[in-house]
Every structure is written in structure tokens, then in C-alpha cells.
């Protein structure tokens, strides 16, 4: 007989008017640089209530460090909010845009960096919050250190399986955004890279080649593809990264993707039994082009205890319906 699959429960939301909004901006009460070895130092900051519930925000990308609005998903009166810039991006050093050696920038070194930071800040356990690549890192960290995570709040699930990477970087999403796809492919066309090949490999040659102008042009096309497809409704402001930020982001993402995230295929979902006891909310945009809902469904199928919430939105954490559900989740866990 065929294997019986558990169909996960889903909270399906189609509201246009979100129930919650982000908390007001808050400034850090503590910032610092932490030496994590291999010539790397990561930037971290703490906001909110020093005596509050610890929570760590894991940014997307990888390579998408920086930003102040990430603090606003948490009630500053109730949370001790820890944010960091992962290796070689944001305010961490050295930067990928400056030619940093990315050899030691791997999923498992980032997991180790989080443990160093937790110990440095003398935090026993914390809530892990992450979207897109941040959900990848949150799952990898929790599965490695399940005793250090109190809850998980995940958004736009991404596990770096080959089918997920192929969908977004090797043709799938082109059927939804054909014009944007042509702009993404243009640097490969100019370099005479066959479009029938693995475009991530082609981009790797451009981003890490000796011609800096070619690398910068490729970085712009790579980041614009992602930024222009991350919202249900296109936002010009999504394309405002500086050339250095574009090069950092594109190089680190591509480094991870051509290496399969430094994980075996399907590892994070295969090992979810290690964390099924941890309370978890998954918020997923129904029309997320970067990280389609199929991955969130697969994770929730393997993790029936998780609270899967599908909302009318695209990919970005700052789309109103997604932000609303994320804040509702952190509010609930604060209680």
C-alpha cells in the first residue's frame, strides 16, 4: 500500500487589513564585535528590555545583514532582542565586497557563531526568529542545539534543496516574471554562458572573476532579481542597495547555493524530529516566489505540531500580512 502522509493543519488568512503592526523603532542599548575565528568578527546588538525574554533575529540572504527594522518584530518591553550580522556582511568584518575569503563561511560555522554569541551574552536559551535563509539557519541551529531554543518563529521556509534553488535561479520563477528574468539572465548572455546550463554556476564565474566591473554588473542583476520578486506588489525601494551591498549579498548567496548550503539534500526536513518538541509558528506567503509554499508544506508535514499560517502575501517579512502574523507570534510567546 502507498505510504500514508499526514496533511498539516493550515491557518489560511486572506485578510487585506493586518491585525497587528510592527512595534515602533527602538535603539540598541548595547553593540559589539565578536571574534569568531578564521579572521572574522561579527557585529551584534541588543535592544529592548535587558531583563526580558531573549530572542535572536536571524537575517536572510545569506548576506543580507544590516537594517534597523528587524528589531520591530518584538515588544521591546518584554523582549531582550539580539540581532547580528552574519559573517562577511552588514557591519561584520571582513566584507565579501572587499574580497574576503568565504571558505570558512558555511552553515555550520554560522551555527557555531550563534553559540559563541549566546555564551558571550550569557543567555541560557532564546527564541530563534528567522525568515528565508534566516529560517534555514534557525532550523540548522535548533537541530544542532535543541536545548538552547525555547521557540521558533519562521517565515518563508527555505531549506536549500535542489528543487528550491532550481525553481528560483534556474528557470521556474521565470514563468511568473519573464521580464525580470530576462534582466537576471543578461549578464550570462553577455558572458556567452549557455542559458541551458546551471545559472548559479555561471554567476559564480562572474561574481568571483578578476573583472571587477563584470562582477559588479552581475551582482546588480542578481540582487535586483531577488528584490523585484520579493513583494506581492513591486516596490521601487527594494532596489536601493549600494553597489557594495549588492556585491556582498550576491557573492555570499551564490557561494552558499553552488555548495548546496553545505548540507546533504533534504537534511533539515529529514532531521526535524530533533526539534518537534519546540513550539513553532511558520508564516508563509501564499504567493511567495522566492520560497514557494510547497517547502513550508513539506516542513509542516514532517512537523505536525508546528502552527502553519498561510497569508495573502509574497516573500518579504515587511509585507503587512506577514509582519502582522510574525508580531502576533512573538507576542504570544512573550506571554
Automatic annotation (TrEMBL):
<feature type="domain" description="AB hydrolase-1">
    <location>
        <begin position="56"/>
        <end position="319"/>
    </location>
</feature>
<dbReference type="InterPro" id="IPR005944">
    <property type="entry name" value="Pro_iminopeptidase"/>
</dbReference>
<keyword id="KW-0378">Hydrolase</keyword>
<dbReference type="GO" id="GO:0005737">
    <property type="term" value="C:cytoplasm"/>
</dbReference>
<dbReference type="InterPro" id="IPR029058">
    <property type="entry name" value="AB_hydrolase_fold"/>
</dbReference>
<keyword id="KW-0031">Aminopeptidase</keyword>
<dbReference type="GO" id="GO:0006508">
    <property type="term" value="P:proteolysis"/>
</dbReference>
<comment type="similarity">
    <text>Belongs to the peptidase S33 family.</text>
</comment>
<protein>
    <recommendedName>
        <fullName>Proline iminopeptidase</fullName>
        <ecNumber>3.4.11.5</ecNumber>
    </recommendedName>
</protein>
<feature type="active site" description="Proton donor">
    <location>
        <position position="315"/>
    </location>
</feature>
<keyword id="KW-0645">Protease</keyword>
<keyword id="KW-0963">Cytoplasm</keyword>
<dbReference type="InterPro" id="IPR000073">
    <property type="entry name" value="AB_hydrolase_1"/>
</dbReference>
<feature type="active site">
    <location>
        <position position="288"/>
    </location>
</feature>
<feature type="active site" description="Nucleophile">
    <location>
        <position position="132"/>
    </location>
</feature>
<dbReference type="GO" id="GO:0004177">
    <property type="term" value="F:aminopeptidase activity"/>
</dbReference>
<dbReference type="InterPro" id="IPR002410">
    <property type="entry name" value="Peptidase_S33"/>
</dbReference>
<dbReference type="Pfam" id="PF00561">
    <property type="entry name" value="Abhydrolase_1"/>
</dbReference>
